[in-house]
Amino acid sequence: MHENGLIKVGEADMSAGKSVGRNAIVTGGASGIGLAIARRLAHDGANVGVFDLDADAAEAAAAQIRADGGSALAVGVDVAHRDQIDQGMDKVRAAFGPIGILVNNAGREGFQPFLDITEDTWNHLLQVNLTGTFHCCQAALPDMIAARWGRIVNISSSSTHGGQPFMTHYVASKSGVVGLTKSLALEFGPKGVTVNTIPPGFIDTPMTRRNEAKGLLGGTVDHHASLTPVRRAGLPEDIANATAFLVSDEAGYITGQIIGVNGGRNT
Ligand code: NAP
Q: In angstroms, rounded to a whole number, what is the distance separating the alpha carbons of residues 15 and 203?
């Protein structure tokens, strides 16, 4: 390996996304995209801290990972609360060691006419989606700086590319995540930490199906799939595949980037 962490041709294990021995945290890791990422990173050899609002669901996810031969610890954490994040990270450090990989995936959606959005609703959505990401980054970065190696992937949204009616608070929060990502990448690149964002586009998850059932999607999942250039809805595993690469050694020269995974939508 080159002294700057560059893997030279012939040295890399080209089965993408190897994270053997790394300690990772995935927020919102009990469902949908976060669950797929947690499972994939564990498959790639990482010890995974599964953070989720729902502690029982987090435990079910971690148990499933362990049953598959992986290493995982479930922690009930609301990313809207810094004290819970700090305590959760300490549990992961005690079980596995310093944190090298952080995936900020926990998020809430919001559908409301702009004029009806109350200050409380606005604040809560930003608290989870944007401030939660801020807190998790701030809590994990000291480990990465000490190791001179770290990987942060923030899950934003393809809605940030062009806006989305009736989702102003959601799109604003996720657009904040994009800006946070780019600025962190510049500040911590010299410390060996890469920071990137994946804005997913139309992924078939429990969140998406809940919104379909409430008639909030402007059509069914199948309808949206038919409008997508690759003619299918995305799968949580599509986001997990990209994340696995971004947190690997091979991705060390990629930072501050918006890596769209959207089947060609909203590009
Ligand atoms: P999901 O199936 O609802 O999973 C989200 C997980 O995050 C759930 O387990 C949820 O717990 C948890 N969570 C919510 N608020 C939390 C908090 N404050 N602290 C900790 N955990 C929390 O949703 P998904 O579709 O996989 O979405 C994952 C991320 O991708 C979100 O940030 C979302 O905005 C983003 N995204 C998704 C799509 C898509 O098409 N699905 C598109 C663009 C962006 P509970 O179930 O207990 O609430």
A: 24
Query: CA 151 to CA 137: how far, in whole Å?
Result: 10
Q: Which residue has the tokens 């923030």?
A: 154
Helix (H, G, I), strand (E, B) or coil at 179: helix
Q: Could you tell which of 35, 53, 197, 198 is best to mutate to test the pocket of ligand 1, judged by most ligand atoms within 8 Å of the CB?
A: 53
- Would residue 2 be called left, alpha or beta, if left means φ above 0 and alpha means ψ between -120 and 50 degrees? beta
Residue 28 Cβ contacting ligand 1 at under 6 Å: yes
In the structure, how many helices (H) and strands (E) does the chain have?
10, 6
Q: Is 170 labeled as catalytic in the residue annotation?
A: yes
Evaluate the CA torsion angle 245, 249, 250, 252 in order and state its sign. Answer: positive
Identify whether the C-beta of residue 171 lies closer than 8 Å to the C-beta of residue 157.
yes
Verdict on whether the full-model pTM lies above 0.85: yes
Comparing C-alpha atoms, which of 10, 250, 242, 27 is closest to residue 136?
27
Residues 6 or more apart in contact with residue 259 via CB below 8 angstroms = 196, 197, 198, 242, 246
Residue identifier of the C-alpha nearest atom 5 of ligand 1: 28
Q: Which domains are present in the chain?
A: 19-203+231-251 (3.40.50.720)
Identify whether the C-beta of residue 247 lies closer than 8 Å to the C-beta of residue 17: yes
Which residue is catalytic, options 170, 199, 246, 255?
A: 170
pLDDT in tens, 197-254: 999 999 999 999 999 999 999 999 999 999 999 999 999 999 999 999 999 999 999 9
- DSSP for 67-110, written as a single string: HTT-EEEEEE--TT-HHHHHHHHHHHHHHH-S--EEEE------
Residue 109 Cα to ligand 1 midpoint, Å, equals: 8
Is residue 105 in contact with ligand 1, taking CB distance under 6 Å?
yes
